[in-house]
Specification:
single chain; 267 residues; alpha/beta; 6-stranded parallel beta sheet; two-stranded antiparallel sheet; 8 strands
Length: 267
């Protein structure tokens, strides 16, 4: 989590080492899932905490752990180190939730697609409409997502641009100048977390949430499962039915990892 060392200053990497005094971080209960400290919290508790972090002194990195992340953790040790440097990690998916509860946790599923709009609504109710920056997806998608958020009255979009760029210096300067309250980075895991890590020093002092394919849901390019399917923990089945060729491999590997972790826990 954020209070752990991020990088040694002499290592040559582009990030400095934050401390408890200068880097915001989750201070509530956690549960160990695949070696990561994940917030042992309900979705409402997570939103409550995030809403209290408006205008942080340093960038606050909020990362979701889902089935694809469980697979990446087994295949990529660098990704594990990247995730461990987040200000907060939350369980986005039935797989991490099951693992957390098997370890005594009480956490529920905290889907970014639910957390993000609820956070914006909370800020809009409590003060000035939030200033929103979006980075990710192919050309035009972030802009369309920004219009969708503005049309819903969830805030003011101050920056929206594609995630496919050869160099991000101009984009980062523009984002910082726009002074957002929140930056949503939608590049897919693990790329979006690695992007935040690599550009940490250039990020604005705001809440930074990696959001995967959320822009596609906002614009209607993808549809969420009905509420009853979500409550039953079957949204992954719904998504698989919509994009079988893209998601089958990820979910198959995820089921293997989940089964292995659960068996290891009970053995």
């Amino acid at each position: 989590m954020a209070e752990k060392s991020r990088y040694d200053e002499d290592s040559g990497d582009s990030m400095t080492e934050p401390t408890k005094d200068d880097a915001p971080g989750w201070q509530g209960e956690t549960v160990l899932i695949s070696g990561l400290s994940v917030a042992d919290a309900t979705q409402q508790e997570l939103v409550d905490w995030l809403s209290s972090q408006r205008n942080p002194a340093k960038p606050l990195l909020a990362y979701a752990l889902h089935v694809g992340g469980l697979v990446a953790l087994r295949e990529n040790d660098k990704y594990r180190k990247t995730m461990d440097k987040a200000s907060v990690i939350y369980a986005d998916g039935i797989g991490p939730v099951l693992l957390g509860r098997s370890r005594g946790g009480r956490l529920g599923r905290s889907a970014t697609t639910d957390i993000a709009p609820e956070l914006l609504r909370r800020w809009a109710r409590e003060g000035e409409p939030p200033r929103i920056a979006l980075l990710g997806g192919p050309p035009g998608l972030a802009s369309a997502a920004g219009h969708a958020l503005s049309d819903k009255g969830l805030g003011k979009t101050v920056y929206a641009e594609s995630g496919f760029q050869a160099n991000y210096d101009v984009a980062l300067a523009s984002i910082k100048t726009a002074t957002p309250d929140v930056l949503f980075v939608g590049m897919g895991a693990p790329r979006e977390m690695e992007w935040c890590e690599n550009h940490y020093l250039q990020l604005p002092d705001c809440v930074v949430i990696t959001c995967g394919g959320w822009f596609g849901f906002l614009t209607g390019k993808e549809r969420r499962a009905p509420r009853w399917v979500q409550r039953a923990g079957g949204e992954w089945v719904w998504r698989l039915a919509q994009s079988p060729s893209r998601l089958f491999g990820r979910y198959f590997k995820g089921l293997l990892v989940l089964g292995h972790e659960l068996v290891k826990r009970t053995s």
